[in-house]
Amino acid sequence: xxxxxxxxxxxxxxxxxxxKVYQERRRFIKQxxxxxxAGAGLVLSGCSQEGCAVSEPIDKKTDRPKQGVKEQLQxxxxxxxxxxxxxxxxxVTTYNNFYEFGTGKGDxxxxxxTLITDPWSVVIEGEVAKPGRYNLEDILKPHTMEERIYRxxxxxxxxxxxxWIGIPLADILKQFExxxxxxxxxxxTLYDPEQMSGQRARFxxxxxxxxxxxxxxxxxxxxxxxxxxxxxEVLPNQNGAPFRLVVPWKYGFKSIKSIVKIRxxxxxxxxxxxxxxxxxxxxxxxxxxxxxxxxxxxxxxxRLPGTLLSPNRIETHMFNGYEEEVAHLxxxxxLSKYY
Length: 339
Ligand code: MTE
Description:
Blueprint (H helix, E strand, L loop, with lengths): L12 H4 L1 H14 L1 H5 L20 E2 L4 E2 L3 H9 L11 H6 L12 H5 L9 E6 L5 E4 H5 L5 E8 L4 E11 H7 L8 E6 L21 E5 H4 L5 E6 L2 E2 L9 E3 L12 E7 L6 H5 L23 E4 L9 E3 L7 H4 L13
Parallel strand pairs: 3-12, 6-13
Antiparallel strand pairs: 1-2, 3-4, 5-6, 6-9, 7-8, 7-12, 9-10, 9-11, 13-14
Bound molecules: ligand MTE.
């Protein structure tokens, strides 16, 4: 994000960087053991209530699973694949916005190792029948993870295609039984300056903690995902571990990272970027090539990776290409006013 005054996929990740991704998948499966140990219902592939030992044997010569993980990920991919090539793992995990760890694109990858993601709990409060503080594994337990390949379009006009692992937000919210008064869902990132170096800065980039929100119908839309992994591994810290939102038809700043609180409300919550610069960043933040940012056009985007000489510019599509799935949510609204 730029500050003002304050100063559809043909290839899976495994086909791009096979060894690394396979190794990471194995790490993911290992790390997922804590879920299983807590009695978790199945996560990815080899994990079950009995454990995450993965039924498929590792081929000692190639150091790859003989079968299974990749196939099961593909099986779970369903209709949410994107037609474009994936952005390589390297770019997804080293070109980030996570101001809690610094404002440079490389800062999160450099600094986010200080974030402790296990144990992790999430407070659920407001308009729900079952409020409380829940361990993340208990929130995830009843659900099956799936892989979804989504485009991520940042308001700064760059974009990526990322294979997320996660659970639809609607399924998670239903667990806590929203009341009929719930009209919005607010999300809050961890506030802990000891773990998050960017929150220690004297002239902080933003007011902490980072807060985002959705209308309840946006939150319940089947596209809206709570991610716990990407490229078949647990989320790297710089990408918002251990639990982040992914709303693919909105500018990336809505996809809040490292969430510790979910609050359902009757009133529209105040959100971080809208509060910080309301004339530049709206509550809705739907990707819209017809509504420019006051300081730059939103008609095009740089699809990463690119270079200075070859920036890989492509056209931006309404709702980031997810018009069919979400346009009905905004019927009759003037999207130049509700940007
Ligand atoms: N969440 C928190 N807590 N802090 C942030 O600075 N940046 C947002 C969003 N979520 C941000 C955040 C922005 S501007 C973008 S574009 C996406 O995260 C980037 O996600 P990525 O780094 O995983 O690509």
